[in-house]
Amino acid sequence: VGERLVIAPRGTTIEDGGEPGGLLAFSLRVATVAKSMSEHFGDAKSLVKVSLLHELGKLGDLQDGADLLIPQESDWHREKLGQMYKYNDACSKMNVAHRTLWMLSHLEFELSRSEWLAIAVSQGLHLQENQFYATSIDGLAAGLLSARLAVLHGK
């Protein structure tokens, strides 16, 4: 997983991290912002931990050759739409948070209930699967969501 993580893109276009190392760069920015905000959201160590791990599922499946994002082969998509990567149809269908939690479980990472929930809702409370938690998230989930939004909006 280590080498794949270092070169993994985060998205399909340059704007959303569609370049080698985009995933790691984004996670490090979120962790840096989260650490600076940690006095408002509780345990700094847990906040940095979930910040670094929350998008691990964007790697794809654990076996080699099952990257979620693969290089875009179409010149038209690259030139006209700026899509440097495309989704790999050979990768199993899971949302990012669920794949992340599965991977962490499979790799025997220990997460507290609060860390698990923060990662589970990390893609946003606007998503239907996360709306159940919208009125009851704790400081750790709120901190991760805040740091993530700050990075996404360039703050």
Explained architecture:
- The chain is mainly alpha-helical.
- The chain is built from seven helices and two strands, in the order αααβαβααα.
- Strands 1-2 form a two-stranded antiparallel sheet.
- The two termini are 30 Å apart.
Number of strands: 2
Percent of residues in β-strands: under 5%
| N-to-C series of helices and strands | HHHEHEHHH
Strand order of the largest sheet: 1-2
Q: For the terminal residues, how far apart are their CA atoms?
A: 30 Å
Average pLDDT for all residues: 93
* Uncertain runs: none
Instruction: Provide a count of the helices.
Output: 7
> Rounded to an integer, what's the Rg over CA atoms?
16 Å
How helical, in percent, are the residues? 40-55%
